[in-house]
Design a protein that fits this description.
Blueprint lengths: L26 E6 L3 H5 L1 H10 L7 E5 L5 H10 L4 E7 L2 E7 L2 E4 L7 H7 L6 E4 L20 H8 L7 H15 L5 E4 L6 H16 L1 H10 L5 E4 L7 H9 L8 E3 L4 E4 L16 E2 L3 H25 L5 H6 L1 H15 L11 H12 L8 H5 L2 H19 L4 H13 L17 H13 L2 H4 L2 H4 L6 H17 L1 H10 L1
Parallel strand pairs: 1-2, 1-6, 2-5, 3-9, 6-7, 10-11
Antiparallel strand pairs: 3-4, 8-10
Helix pairs in contact: 4-6, 5-7, 6-7, 6-8, 7-8, 10-12, 10-13, 10-15, 10-16, 12-21, 15-16, 16-20, 16-21, 20-21
Pfam families: Mannitol_dh (PF01232), Mannitol_dh_C (PF08125)
Keywords: Oxidoreductase
GO molecular function: oxidoreductase activity, acting on the CH-OH group of donors, NAD or NADP as acceptor
Length: 488
C-alpha cells in the first residue's frame, strides 16, 4: 500500500501510525538536510510529543541546498512527507509511521524559496544535519574558512547564496528588517560544540557582507550545543524490501537501532518544543555528553571501520564478530580512549563502552563499514586525534590509536588486502591516495599532512609508533599488526 495521508487508516494493524490530526499541524521548524538520521532522531522526538497532544505548532518544513536534495523532496512530497521508521532490535523488528514533517521547500538555484520560508514569523528554529565536514571550518586553524569558493560566492552574492548558512544569513536580514525577530540555529551534527561551530559559521559569513547584521545576529540569535545519538544505516535495496514486508510502499524508509539520545543546551531565543517530555535531556553540561559519545562511539566507529574495510568485512556488526577487530576495539577503548572521558548522570565511561559494544554488535543493523569509514579526513581529526593528544599529555598509552591511524593510511591506498579496489570514500580521496602511496615507502610522510595531524608529526611517542605500525601493516598485513598490538 502506497504511503500517504489517505492510506494511513488502512495500514496493517502491526504498523503504528500517527494518532494526531496532521491537517491541524502548523510549522515551527525548518530543517536543512533531510537525511535518514534526522528522520529517525529529531523528527521522532517531535512525533512523540505530538502523540501526547503537544507541539502541534512546531511541525517541520524540510529543506536542502544541493541539487540532489530535490530528488528527496519529490519522493517525500509524493507520500505526504510521511516516513516509515523500522526499528531493528535483536528481539524483533517493528515499524512505525511518523508525521511531524508537513512540507519541503523547493530546491532551486539561489535558494530564494528557502530564504523566504525561514523569514516567516512562525519559523522559530532552523535546524541542520549537514555532516561534520559541512561547516566550512579551516582545517589548519579550526576557524572559519573565509576563502572557500562557496563562502566567497555567498559573501559576494548574499541574496543568491549557495550554502545553507548563506540562506540563513539572508533570512535573518529579512527578519530583522521586517521586525520579525531572530530564530534559533540548531546544529544536529556530530561536532564538539556544534552550536558554537554553527554560530561561528553564520556570524562570520554575515560579517563578510554586512557587519551590522553580523552584530545583530550575535546579539539576538542563539545556537545551542547538542549531542545526538542513534545508529541509522543508509537505505538501500534491503531496506526497501523490508518496508514492503510490512505491507507499505515507502520510497524513503529509515531503519534504526532501538537506542536514541539527545542532550541539548536550553538556549532558544524564540521558544522550543518540550523535547524532554519525549525523552531528550536538557543540560548545562552538554560538553561531557559530547565528549563521551564522540570519543567512544564515533571514535570507536573509526577504530573498527578502517580495518573492516581493509579486511573486506562489510558491516559494523561483522567487525564486532571478527575476533581481531573486536579485540582491537575493546583494548583501544578501555586503555586509550576511556581514561580521558568523564562520567555523565546516565553512564560511567565503563558502562558506556559496554553499551556501545552491544549496539555495534546488533546483527539486525546492516550498517556498512564503507559508510562509517567515509570522510576520514574529518572524522579522524574529530574523533580519534583528540584522544591521542590527551594520551600524550597524560602519559597514557597511544599505541593502539597510532595503529588505527596507520590502518586508515593503508585504507586510503585504495585497495583492500584481497586486492579488491576501494571506491573514493573521502572528499579529499585523490590527495589521500597519493600520500598513502608515498607513506607505504616513507610512513612519516602521512603525518606531514598538517591539516589533519597538526603537530603530532613532531610528537615522537605517537609518530614513532605510527611509522612502526604502518611499516608492519605493509610488510605483514593488518591482521599481523593487530595481533602484535594485542600481544603487547
Amino acid at each position: 500500500m502506497k504511503l500517504s495521508n489517505d492510506t494511513l487508516p488502512h495500514l496493517p494493524a502491526s504498523v503504528r501510525r500517527p494518532s494526531y490530526d496532521r491537517t491541524r499541524l502548523s510549522p515551527g521548524i525548518v530543517h536543512i538536510g533531510l537525511g535518514n538520521f534526522h528522520r529517525a532522531h529529531q523528527s521522532w522526538y517531535l512525533h512523540r510529543l505530538m502523540e501526547q497532544g503537544l507541539a502541534h505548532d512546531w511541525a517541520i518544513v524540510g529543506a536542502g541546498v544541493r541539487p540532489y536534495d530535490e530528488t528527496m523532496r519529490q519522493k517525500m512530497a509524493a507520500q505526504d512527507y510521511l516516513t516509515t521508521l523500522i526499528e531493528l532490535d535483536p528481539a524483533g523488528t517493528s515499524a512505525e509511521v511518523v508525521g511531524p514533517m508537513i512540507d519541503y521547500v523547493p530546491v532551486e538555484e539561489g535558494n530564494g524559496a528557502l530564504i523566504e520560508r525561514m523569514a516567516q514569523p512562525e519559523i522559530r528554529i532552523v535546524a541542520l544535519t549537514v555532516t561534520e565536514g559541512g561547516y566550512y571550518i579551516d582545517p589548519a586553524t579550526k576557524g572559519f574558512d573565509a576563502l572557500h569558493p562557496d563562502i566567497v560566492h555567498d559573501a559576494a552574492n548574499p541574496w543568491t547564496p549557495r550554502t545553507a548558512f548563506g540562506a540563513m544569513v539572508a533570512a535573518l536580514k529579512l527578519r530583522r528588517d521586517r521586525g520579525v525577530g531572530p530564530f534559533t540555529g540548531q546544529s544536529c551534527d556530530n561536532l564538539q560544540g556544534n552550536g558554537e561551530v554553527l554560530r561561528q559559521t553564520v556570524v562570520s559569513l554575515a560579517r563578510l557582507s554586512d557587519p551590522e547584521l553580523a552584530e545583530w545576529i550575535e546579539a539576538h540569535c542563539t545556537f545551542p550545543n547538542a549531542m545526538v545519538d542513534c545508529i541509522v544505516p543508509a537505505t538501500g535495496p534491503k531496506e526497501l524490501a523490508l518496508v514492503r514486508e510490512f505491507g507499505i510502499e515507502d520510497e524513503v524508509p529509515v531503519t534504526h537501532e532501538n537506542f536514541r539520545q539527545w542532550v541539548i543546551e536550553d538556549n532558544f531565543c524564540a521558544g522550543r518544543p518540550d523535547w524532554d517530555r519525549a525523552g531528550a535531556t536538557f543540560s548545562d553540561d552538554v560538553h561531557a555528553y559530547e565528549t563521551m559519545k564522540i570519543r567512544i562511539l564515533n571514535g570507536g566507529h573509526q577504530v573498527i571501520s578502517d580495518p573492516g574495510e581493509v579486511l573486506s568485512v562489510e558491516t559494523i556488526s561483522g567487525c564486532m564478530e571478527h575476533p581481531l577487530i573486536s579485540a582491537l576495539f575493546e583494548k583501544v577503548e578501555r586503555e586509550e580512549i576511556m581514561p580521558h572521558v568523564h562520567a555523565v548522570p546516565e553512564f560511567t565511561p565503563e558502562d558506556y563502552v559496554t553499551l556501545i559494544k552491544a549496539r555495534f554488535s546488533n546483527p539486525k543493523i546492516v550498517d556498512t563499514t564503507r559508510r562509517v569509514a567515509f570522510d576520514g579526513s574529518s572524522r579522524h581529526p574529530g574523533f580519534i586525534l583528540p584522544s591521542v593528544r590527551d594520551g600524550l599529555a597524560a602519559g597514557t598509552p597511544v599505541e593502539g590509536l597510532a595503529l588505527v591511524s596507520a590502518i586508515w593510511a593503508r585504507y586510503c591506498l585504495g585497495t583492500r588486502e584481497d586486492s579488491s579496489g576501494v571506491a573514493p570514500n573521502d572528499p579529499f580521496w585523490a590527495e589521500l591516495t597519493v600520500l598513502a602511496a608515498q607513506a607505504a615507502e616513507t610512513p612519516q610522510i602521512w603525518l606531514e599532512n598538517r591539516l589533519i595531524y597538526g603537530d603530532l608529526a613532531d610528537q615522537p611517542r605517537f609518530a614513532d609508533a605510527f611509522c612502526r605500525w604502518l611499516a608492519l601493516v605493509h610488510r605483514d598485513g593488518t591482521e599481523a599488526a593487530i595481533k602484535a598490538y594485542l600481544a603487547a
